[in-house]
Amino acid sequence: MTQKSLTHLSITEALAGLSKKEFSAVEYTRAHIEATEQNRDLNCYITETPDIALRQAAESDARRAKGQAGLLDGVPIAIKDLFCTQGVRTTAASRILDQFVPEYESTVTSKIFAEGAVMLGKVNLDSFGMGSTTGSSAFGQTFNPWRSTTSPDVKLVPGGSSGGSSAVVAARMAPGALGTDTGGSIRQPAAFCGISGIKPTYGRCSRFGVIAYASSLDQAGVFARTVEDCALMLKSISGYDPKDSTSANKPVPDFVAGLQGGNVKRLKVGIPKEYRVEGMPQEIDESWHKGTQWLKDQGAEIVDISLPHVKYALPAYYILAPCEASSNLARYDGVRYGRRIEGKDLKETYELTRAHGFQDEVKRRIMVGTYALSAGYYDAYYVKAQKLRRLIRDDYMKAFEKCDVLLTPITPSAAFPVGQNEDDPIKMYLEDIFTISLNLAGLPGMCVPAMLNAEGLPLGLQIIGRPWDEETVLRAARGLEIAADFRALPGMLGTKMAA
Q1: Lowest-pLDDT range, 368-377, 398-407, 420-429?
Q2: Is 132 a catalytic residue?
Q3: Would you call 398 a catalytic residue per the annotation?
Q4: Which of 36, 151, 287, 445 could be bridged to 438 by S-S, CB 3.0 to 4.6 A?
């Protein structure tokens, strides 16, 4: 097979080809390394690891020859640069950790390597996971491989914070990628880049070795181009971890077997009226309506539901997440590890190190969080936000008494131009309006690409499920995927992207 055709294979198709010896893991991996070299202008990778990838691929071929192949043996993946990788630089897209090389491996990457996956490298993100565009990275902006048909020369954002993970999969530089989701950081970039991505229930995947932003909200997840591929990857990274006190000791279902061919007959699908926000673009409402009709046509029952407190999710999140960030990021002081800028005394060393090492958006959130936690404001802000969080979760639990899953939009727009809204943080925060409530409630959510808008840009839909019910989320997502039959490719790569 040619390099072009190899990079267009889904993970499921690639595993079938590897099993039949139609190509080797080394050939499959080399094709993606070459695709990466051809598309470095997208700035997806912070650290490329081709030597490691080819070595792991050769080891995979040897295992397969012995009949010892794992679930993802020989599949090259990209890793968001928040996951600590032993012996490989891990930066969190920040200056303060730009030369940090961990001496240990995160549990999620350990699990996926144990299943035979191959590491292509560490991909770009918003610094410490704080952002919606991948524009706050100390290593520069990642670009979306999609271009508007009306303004093809305008570069678009890939979403964030996992923008590198979504862009690398959409651009056929990797068939799958690891990401994290604190307020929509998997689902929003997946929607902007026209691929699938799932954030599982909080506690389904270990957070050990994941550089923390907001510990009660962060959750690892996956990106791929099909729902089945996401199910495969999610199965490989899920499970209890005694090194993480928030990891749930629950059995991991066979997510792939649970897809049931995308059969959604008699599935009750909730449509929350509060997601119809004022000023919603017509194209977003149209995609939502189409998704609802697709599921109804397949035998699903559509149920109107209400989430009365979800309108408070955005302000609650932007109090709670910065509060946790101000605590988590206090460890970066230039003393134990990371970049150090010497001052005349210890206090000035702290100040200079943090001033230089943290990006502007990170500083903004640390200051907001520190203010909300300070004497006289703790009860007024933090405690109230925690109470709202509980009310939002209760709303979802009541809704799930009437339905099995919820169907909603993911983003209030398609991907927008690089630089737009950068001078207005509030507008940027509004990008997460449809995703944040799931993190507050700890629920699983998945993006499925649905259609193209009038400018030829992808729009995604979100499936939301009960806690620990990723199986039903994936099954509904598969039904949506079958109906949408989304096959469009990013046009900016020209002949390199031709099928």
Answers
A1: 420-429
A2: no
A3: no
A4: 445
